[in-house]
């Protein structure tokens, strides 16, 4: 149980990226005068799947299945996850508007196009996750084995920096 | 993991050159003492000083000029964008070669070759970049969302940037983090919007157009469109002097021999700034261990150039082109407005088209991202301009060394801010109409000129072991011919500078 809690805690930055996407969509819907219910549905329809898939990727990194900070696995993961997240969003939106859930027209083309665009999302996701994570992970390092493990993956970076510091010396 | 900001931990002290010291003689100025090259960070991270170049480079070219050309001439015209951005990726790598090998800016390199070259860039930077017109697109988009007049937003943004940069202890670290986050948001956001409104067919045509090499319709050769095409190529990726400023950001990030140069501080902490050495440094290229480290640095910067710079620039422009195509499909009026060249009207029409096609959110979101692009460019531009001018002033204006580099930076920053506010309130934001052509000419001319400077610095000032190979030289040489050739062809054939 404690392990799940730690995993969830570690995944917070990744989930935040999906939450940010949902918040932007929902927040702006409200801002431009859409009914509150509509704004919430749009925000959740996009934000929740992206949060879940984002957390899924972070969990793979935390469990050592995927190396931290490397682009290729993130690209492969999101080429599947991103189209699915947008499919969920489309189905949910159609449900709210028409009253019954329905797939978008030409679902395969729908998925294929979003699979191509996913490359961009993968870069942005990885980037933002690292930006947020470098504030969050050191904060929970003492009590969270997953954060510790991921930060340790950067050990050779620290080693390289230390060696460099020694090599450079104090003279200029 | 923030790799680059950690480089600030490398201790630096003022130079204490001794008479017997080993040095590298480069050009006419003071020789560079030999120092150890620091170890390169592993390239698994996806952060680096290239965020500045992305922030500056992803602007109106990507979000407006190229989508416009695609609507006018069809997606096949995008091969020229592909050539432009790829060329810029090579320029980035060569700029980095000089900056990482010496810890000097490319301006210093130009002065080592021939000082008037450096003075040309000094004057051109002031003429091109002191006008606050670049703020208008982002601030106008913000006005569409909030109703706040754009001049008010622009003036507040100017003062905000000045105060912020003055209060910071080390400016580079903060800006790298902030721009990293903002660009991350931009990339995530544009992907999501493009996924929501675009279609497979739009994307297919946009991407295949990037490989339609040689396509050049007759209409593009007219006096109305050729200058626009040339201007758009020059604005593919970083334009004007932005690549030259990148060498300063590399230095401040501590990349390569830049680790031996102190960082620029905000005005509040300017007193704590370490004294600046009077020139850069060189490493021992005959030592295999040092050369192995150099290869590590080249790998690191290549990773930055390919994934961050080339990848993100391509992604954003493809996304915006897909958006423009879907907007034109929804509302034919958009196509005629975009072709007409009224930027604000065209952006508004695109926003409306998205709003009617999907939901009002999409229209607002579109403006939010134009505003975000404007904010990124403004933050990057003010910092870079001040950095470049401070660098040249400190080293080459007699008597300037009694001020620290950080104080000179603050002086240029506040100078351009106050001038910008005055112009926004009382004058033409883009510069006086009479000199607009000259400014556009200078901006593209600087790009051809820096290709020539790069060929000279990297082949004449660097030790043989780390000079560029023949292929790189041919590509940069092609860049010089490409930019200058198009510019002068435009001028002599049609009598106008770039559009």
UniProtKB/TrEMBL annotation, chain A:
Keyword Transmembrane helix appears in the UniProt entry: yes
Keyword list, A-Z: Membrane, Transmembrane, Transmembrane helix
Spans traversing the lipid bilayer: 12-32, 38-63, 75-98, 110-128
Identification of the protein by name: Uncharacterized protein
Source organism (scientific name): Kribbella sindirgiensis
UniProtKB/TrEMBL annotation, chain B:
Keywords recorded for this protein, A-Z: Membrane, Transmembrane, Transmembrane helix
Domain of life per record: Bacteria
Statement: the UniProt record of this protein carries the keyword Transmembrane: yes
Chain segments annotated as transmembrane: 44-65, 77-96, 117-142, 148-171, 178-200, 220-241, 305-328, 361-382, 408-427, 439-462, 474-496
Stated name of the protein: Divalent metal cation transporter
